[in-house]
Amino acid sequence: MDLRNAPPSPEKVKEENSHAFMDQHSHYFTVKFSQTDLSEYTIDCDQPNTVLEAIKSNKKSKEMITCADENIIIQLGKGDRESIVATHFPCSCIRNGECLIISCKSESVEKAQNQHDKNIYPTDKYSVFYIDTVGGIHTRTKELFRNNTVKQFKFLCVYGKKGMTVEEALRIDGRFIDNLGNFCLSNNENPKQYTVHTQKVVNLNEKKFKICLPKRKSDEHNSHEKNARNPSPNSQSMRKPRSVTDVAHQSGVSVKTAVEKSGSSIDTEEIYERLRQQFPDLKEWMESRFSGDSYQEALDLRKENFGKVQQSFSEVHRVRKLLKLGESVCKIIVTDVCEGTGFVLFDRFILTNAHLFKDHVEGKELEEGIEVFALFNYEDPVPNYHCFTGVKTFVDIDVNLDYAILEISPVDQTSNQQTKAKVPPGLLKNFGPPPQNGEACIIGHPGGEVKKMDPTFIIEKEKRAEAVNGHLDQYKDMFILLSIGQSLKNKGIEDIMMGGHDAEECVTYNTFMYHGSSGSPVFDALGKVFGLHTAGYTYEFAGMKGNVIEFARPLLTIFQRFVRNLMESENEELLKRVEEAAKGNKYLKDILKAEAADFDEPMEFS
Questions:
Q1: H helices of 279-361, where?
Q2: pTM here?
Q3: Could you give the C-alpha distances from 526 to 44, 308, 312, 424, 427, in angstroms and in order?
């Protein structure tokens, strides 16, 4: 963002906020209270203030702010989600005629009653720089911000009085966590150029940085220990220091022995007895697990299958095809709710999961105050994406099949000119039936991060129980097994097992693509997209976290329901567009014919 900046004066600085500065302080800016609101209110700033004080000096603007000061987000400029400033940002650093967009959040974004300098100085006394909301090295699992809502923007605009350290500037900013530790900043233009937290801000003006954290020795130790104990690439272990289960895993003994060694007075016999009483059916299920060498045979088969997947998706032509198709995959942001993944169905229609909007949809209308954004080309840590706004009314949404179809505006919000941008081609023509077995690949945005792809293999429905049990086999202690097993049962894992009511209606596999990747397309080895990655079964016990199996909804089933809903609502215009987009795909053609026959509506196909 183009902030006013003047080089530091070589002469001795007068005590700022002097009468001379107050007399010459005169500029204006405008405020809006929504990105789409056409109304702007002029703020005449005739004395040094924080930006929020200046805004509230206007009666109308003050009335429009209905939340606590610490819950306010102030966007700098009209460029969509470019950068935000703190409420105590110096008004002298706001460019004359700049537009600010104000929004209120349900939780605090800044630290309340922040101890910033109450005096406001001329712009040349400050260094204004930008902190990327995408962290640098060793930040993937670390919290950096007081409220992750700020991650919806590209940068946090930070200021510091010249002579102040980087650490002081971020501390008084109030939007970062209280203790960032021994961090440093990497320059976005030159990532190998670092500024440590104890350095002065004087040379940072107008530059953009990522926060980088040191790698803790405990991280390396835990990572090595986890790999030694659990070779599964999908298991994520996080242990609490000095817990009983820590001692058990670290020393290779049972929980009971660990308790005794730790000197705890816990009555483990009582714990086991209570578990037996509470979960008799689970105990029976656990005891009926693999017999003889059946588990080892299943494990060997899985290793063989996965080797085939790696070989298949290492072929250049397949990877090239997947990368091309993956251009249609986008990151979905539901403001103040969650992040997920979606992909272009056709034209400007996006398919994703309905559960991303849970409790925020009435009929087909998105709740007031909730916005949806689709980010394409979000593939590089340095933001270079295109952002489109979702229409507030869903084209179709179905909770049972867990899908939602929404239309996005034709305007690229990341363009300062608000120009129309080309949306990537849709994947509808590539729809195909789910294979019973074999290779698969998921492309999405796990954790809301940059786009990733994960080759995997399909777990046949008759082998799902073996796959789950195979994962749990790493835990030898019955106490742990009972607890994790009951947690999975409570989450409904039996629904997708043989005999479960969803067993025939989903495709299962193992992947690291869970949180944030809901709505990702799932491809087969030939590049056909057959599934909508929907959910998985995770567990957490005594600080340990893991996932045992994930699943997708078949896209042909979703397409059939979508077509049926269009016919029932008599939306002929959109139905014709669907027919046109589906031309050349025999699977879609058959579905359209079958649904048309049910409704006695003749259709033309080519």
A1: 280-287, 294-312, 316-325
A2: 0.53
A3: 62, 14, 10, 20, 14
